[in-house]
Amino acid sequence: MAKKESKAEDLVRRHRRSRRQVLGFFLCVLALVGLASVVAGGIRLTAALFDDSDERAAYEQRLTYVVMLDMLPFASLQQANQSDLLESSIWATLFNEDTSLYQRNENGALLLPSAEVDRYAAQLFGPDYKLPHATFESEGLMFPYDDVSQCYTIPITGQVGNYTPDVVEISGTKSVQRVSVGYLVPYTSATDLASNRDTTKPVKYYDYLFTLAADGNYYLTSMEESEWVAEVADPNSAVTDDMVTDMDPNAAVGEALTEVDPSVAQELEAAGANQTAESDSAAEDAAEESAAEGAAG
Fold this sequence. Notes:
The protein has eight helices and nine strands. The strands form three sheets. A four-stranded antiparallel sheet has the order 6-7-8-9, with helices on one face. Strands 1-5-4 form a three-stranded antiparallel sheet. Strands 2-3 form a two-stranded antiparallel ribbon. 15% of the residues are buried.
C-alpha cells in the first residue's frame, strides 16, 4: 500500500515538473520575442531619427528651378545674377500653378503677373528679398515686362533645364544649413538615350546655404563650391575659347586617319606644306604690292 502511494506521489511530482518545464520554456520564448521586439523597435527608432530623406526631398523640390538654370556661386542674394533669381522664380510659378487661369496676349503668349512670381521667390529667398522686375534675356529668350500691367510675357519655348538636383547631404548648424547638391543630367533626346549614359551619378556638386529666419523657416542666402567631387564627366560642359584656339582640326583628322592608313599622314603633311608655302607666297606678293603703291604715292 505504501509503495503504491509512493509511486502515485512520484507520478504527481513528475507531472508537476513537466508542467513547470513547459511553462518555463514558453516564458523563455516570450522573453526572447519581447527582447527581439524591443531591439527591432530601437533600430527602427534610431533609423527614423537619422533618416532625413523627407528633408532632402523637400530641398530638392525647392532647388529644382535654381539648379536647372546652372547658376554661378554667389556670396549673397545681392551678389547673385538677379536675372537668374528672377527666371528661377518664373519657372517655379509656371510649373506649379494652373497656367490656364492666366491671361494671354493677342499672339497667344502667356501673361504672368509679377505678384505670383514674388510669391514663389519669397518661398525660396525669404520675404525680405525683393525681385527687381524688369525685361531680361536668358539663353536667347526674351522675357518682356510691362510696368503698367505688371506682367511678364512668357516666350513659347520647349527648352528644359540642363540639370536636376540630387541632395546628397544636409549639414551645418541650427542657424545655417549646408545643403550639398549633386547635379544630375537627364536624357534630353533619343540620341542621348542611345548613348547609355549613367544619369544616376551627379556630374558636379555645389553647396547651398540656407539661413534660419525670424519666422522659423530656412531660406537660401548663398551658394558655394562643394568639397564633393563628381565621378563622371558633364556632357553639358562647353568647349572653352582656349580649347578652340589650341585645337588644330587638320592635325586631329590626320591622327585619326593615320590609325587606318599610315600613308595618309605623308599625304596630309605634304598638303599642309604646300598650303603653308602658298600662304607665305601670297603674303609676300601682298607686301610687294603695298610697297609699290607706297612708292608711287
